Amino acid sequence: MHDPEPSTTPTPHFEAALLAVPKAVPELRRTLTAYGPHPDLSLCVSELLSNVIRHLGEGTPVTVRVTGGGAGRIRVAVTDPDPRALPVLRHATGDEEAGRGLALLDAVSLRWGVEQGADSKTVWCELRGGPGAA
Fold first, then answer.
1. What is the rounded CA–CA span in Å between residue 112 and residue 75?
2. pLDDT at res. 70
3. Of 41, 49, 77, 86, which has the fewest Cβ atoms less than 10 A away?
4. What is the chain's pLDDT, residue by residue, as a tens digit (134 residues)?
5. How far is 129 from 75, CA to CA, in rounded Å?
6. Residue 36, number of CB atoms within 10 A of its CB
7. Cβ pair 48, 76 in contact under 8 A
8. What is the pLDDT at residue 86?
9. Is 21 within 8 Å of 53 (Cβ atoms)?
10. Quick one: pLDDT at residue 37?
11. What are the strands of the beta sheet with 60-70, ordered from one edge?
12. Half-sphere exposure of 13 (CA within 13 A, CB side)
């Protein structure tokens, strides 16, 4: 008998189903600080959740996951029910009040992307750090 291959699927360290409303953003940041300090984790979670509020509307149901993705990485993912509203990386000019969220996420993360499902999408990013950092 041999040992099974180690799983490459990240194990959730944090998962929450919630409604995307403005007051959820600081509450989520406070909750995640209990899982350990990480300089960019709060920023990425805030931006991903704020994008749902801005582009899909307040009260949209979402699932937020923070996992230790192996290789010294933390994966942050927010799933919402609209597979058609895809994020677009823009570079806002100095006068624009919006359009910087994904640029910030792009700047602080190792990589980010979108996984489309039939009735949902997940926007995710990976940060440098280990499973104990989230």
1. 9
2. 66
3. 86
4. 444 444 444 445 899 999 999 999 999 998 888 766 787 999 999 999 999 999 999 999 999 999 986 678 899 999 999 999 888 776 656 665 556 678 889 999 999 999 999 999 999 999 987 544 44
5. 9
6. 15
7. yes
8. 84
9. yes
10. 72
11. 11-20, 60-70, 73-80, 121-128, 111-116
12. 21
Tokens of 127: 């940060």
Long-range contacts of 99-108 (CB under 8 A, 24+ apart): 101/47, 101/50, 101/51, 102/47, 102/51, 104/43, 104/47, 105/43, 105/44, 105/47, 105/48, 108/40, 108/43, 108/44
Among the listed residues 130, 112, 117, 119, the one whose alpha carbon sits nearest the alpha carbon of residue 47: 112
- Give the Cα separation of 127 and 129 in Å (integer): 6
